Amino acid sequence: MGKRIVFFLLFVGAFLSSQGAVITLKGGKKVYGEVLMQNADVVIVRDNTGARFQYPSSEVLSVEDESAQEEEVVIEEEKKKPQGKKMTFLLDVGGGGAFVPHDKNGGFFGGELLIGSRYIGQKELFLGGGLNVECMFMPNSTYVFLPLEVAVKVPFLEGKHSPFVGVNLGYGFGVKNCKGGIYTSAEVGWRYIINPRANMYVSLRVQFQQASVAATTTIGETAFNDYSGRNFIIFGSQFGISF
User: Fold this and answer.
1) Which pTM value belongs to this model?
2) Could you report the per-residue pLDDT of 55-81, keeping only the tens digit for each?
3) Residues 194 and 92 in one domain
4) Could you report the per-residue pLDDT of 19-60, keeping only the tens digit for each?
5) Fewer Cβ within 10 Å of end Cβ, the chain: N or C?
6) Quick one: 112 and 183 in the same domain?
7) Does the residue 185 lie in any domain?
């Protein structure tokens, strides 16, 4: 029986000698290298520099394949990666100034509700879509738009408070005194992590809304109601929270 055990240990040693191994000693030290010999009395290892080391078998806790150790490390690292909710809500409100090129300036107030994902694969970002509300307060009239949009917010650092950039794109439907058109926006700001499920966003934002607004044209004594093309450009600040 003793000869069989020695033969088995020599077979294991020969197998490990063809590949990298991890030798764990009783003191907790790990030795990485190629096992040249292993039996009931001794384990002989050659490390990556070519140096040979000999350890009594009584001092060796285990001899394992290095690739198996690497797989365990990879699994542990995957577990440590953030696993956010698949779906999340993001609510934004904001205000600022609005103006029409070659026309009169005014004010703006708006908000949006978005539904999307906080993670694409293992990459942390917000990607979703939803509904926006835009109210333009111009000197002679008030215009309201309801853009349907796709939005993305990308933080510079994952899992930490950090700056972020965002882009929205969609179509704004005219609700009051106007017809809609293409809607887009861009923002830059700060993302603050409240807890693993909630983030807060504060940003400066530029929005563009294409539209046709109601206009009256008088020819002689006859008045004609029609629409004229306008492009609203909005500068303002935005506050948002995802949950």
Assistant:
1) 0.59
2) 888 888 888 776 555 555 444 555 554
3) yes
4) 578 888 887 788 888 888 888 888 888 877 778 888 888 888
5) N
6) yes
7) yes
